[in-house]
Amino acid sequence: MRKPKRFHVYIIFAVLIATASSFAQTNSSMAQRRAGHLRHGINLSEWFAQVYDPKGYTKEHFENWTASSDIALIKSMGFDHVRLSVNPQPMMRHNRADELPPEYLGYLDSAVKMILDHGLAVIIDMHPDSDFKAKLVQQDDFVEQFSDFWRAIARHYSSYDPEMVFFEVLNEPEFRDRYRWAGVQAKLANSIREGAPQHTIIAAGANYSDVADLVSLTPLSDPNVIYNFHFYDPHTFTHQGATWGVNYWHFESKLAYPSSMETAEKVAAAEPDPLNRLFILRYGLDHWDTNRIAIEIGQAADWAKRWNVPLTCNEFGVFRKDSDPQDRAQWLRDVRTTLERDGIGWNMWDFGGRDEGLGFGVVNGGKNGPNTPDGVTLEALGLKR
Q1: Helix, strand or coil for residue 80?
Q2: Residue in 149, 161, 162 with CA at minimum distance from that of residue 199
Q3: 248 domain-assigned
Q4: Residues 6+ apart with CB under 8 A from 296
């Protein structure tokens, strides 16, 4: 007896569902496996993004900021990948965002090749300034243009080894509306996938991509994705001495970790504003130590287990200028060991070396001398000198 046509339709539909499910599981396991290439990383900043030189993004800057010897040093210290911050603004042409400028792209190609030639994986991280992200928040047309740009970039690098090249949608989106960010990220990720069908995408939560932003995120429908969060908590400690962000940070110096009221009271005394004094005193009361960090990061780990997705921490660090080196090292050690215990790969902010204030760097250097490993930092990261 012939079966009705509807039966054949059901069979075909069931096969399609099974095939799609198998494809999703395969790609999800692929992302999990590829996350193994991103265990111990370092950020390369101020090369293709955050260029503060008044001359801007110039040939001289691209060719001299980071040398092959720096990449070799990163490899020798035990890192397995770098996160290469790339500002799309110098490359995006208004209403022609898919037309990438060959000269600029050539400098980026050279940098990516230099990294890969040293056996390091590379995350191509879109890292624009805040004004760029504000347009994404406000303008649908600008989202479309950035989508065109991402498709072109992904297509350009689609022939590179997908085991070694990763695409990060957007650094710290600065979207307060996490639902809008969910839609924007989905569109951008889809464009990346159109350009590079085999490569793994790195996605993140809204705003500043912290733990709270991650755990409020629903994963993308694309299974070949690694999720990412940043960890600088508490900023009162990690950003002491910084002259950006919250104003009171620049009054802070030698605030201790683990937190204690004794040092918090001393540091608060130097803060002229009573509200800011309260914030510093609260740090002393908040029990920031190994256990507190483990609880905070544990929430990110639990989220990844719930959704069965791979997870990485692409930024964490302590500003060096006014922090005690041993306290900074202890915080780094506590974060790093917690991440490793929870099976989360990490990428510290950052390589540094050019900033006389030392930034967050893993090396000591300067404009007139070679970069050398900072032993205290490397030890805290569990790496070799």
Answers
A1: coil
A2: 162
A3: no
A4: 211, 231, 233
Res. 9: pLDDT tops 50: no
pLDDT of residue 19: 33
Per residue in 115-142, pLDDT tens?
Answer: 999 999 999 999 999 999 999 999 999 9
Instruction: Pull the structure tokens for residue 196.
Output: 């590079």
Q: Which two tokens stand for residue 50?
A: 């955050």
Q: How far is CA 312 from CA 43, 60, 381, in A?
A: 13, 33, 16
Tokens, residue 305: 């287990």
* Domain annotation covers residue 229: yes
Q: What is the pLDDT of residue 17?
A: 30
**Cβ–Cβ under 8 Å, residues 92 and 126:** no
* Alpha carbons 352 and 192: distance in angstroms, whole number: 29
- On whether residue 106 sits in a domain, the answer given is yes
CA distances to 236, 241, 264, 275 from 272, in Å: 16, 15, 14, 9
Give 273's DSSP letter.
Answer: S
CATH code at 366?
3.20.20.80
- Alpha-carbon gap, residue 132 to 121, rounded angstroms: 27
How confident is the model over 248-284, as pLDDT tens digits?
999 999 999 999 999 999 999 999 999 999 999 999 9
**SS3 label, residue 207:** coil
Q: Into how many domains does the chain fold?
A: 1
* Domain membership flag for residue 239: no
- State the pLDDT at residue 26: 47
Q: What local confidence, expressed as pLDDT, does residue 384 receive?
A: 78
